[in-house]
Amino acid sequence: MWGAAARAQIKALVTDFDGVHTDNSVFLDMDGREFVRCSRADGMGIEMLRRRGLKLLILSRESDGVVAARARKLQMECAHDVKDKLPFLDAWRQRNGLSWQELAYIGDDINDLECLEACGLSVAPGNARAEVKEVCQIVLKCSGGDGALRELCDHLIDSALVPDVPV
Fold first, then answer.
1. CATH no., domain 12-158
2. What pTM did the predictor assign?
3. What share of the chain is helix, strand, coil (3-state, %, to 5)?
């Protein structure tokens, strides 16, 4: 599965939201409030990475507050309503003293392509668009919202791409 994936130590995980944390579905009530489904297993994986000292960021084009709410629940930094992701990610990376090789990025759609190509480790959930899968070093078996993040977190830990001792 890992093939030619980078072997540099990963110090940060950056995730898209829709299609990664969710299955890309949205539920609306009659007042227009949006609801999404996320996997609790993904949340445990994120917690395991946080305990190992990784910086964690949700970077989303979506403007709805559900993104920020999920980020708070997972204790992840959140940037949503970001239309041009790469310049934002570059500034965030520099503020945190990280090289591109130290970043893992998981995304599922065409607005993630530039970030996926820039980061040291590029990952797509199993249900990502074909053009996204083509540029990624890793294509997961699980789909977004259905364990993809947990699968990635487990592999990062099992492959010693992140610190092995919780901080």
1. 3.40.50.1000
2. 0.92
3. 35, 15, 45
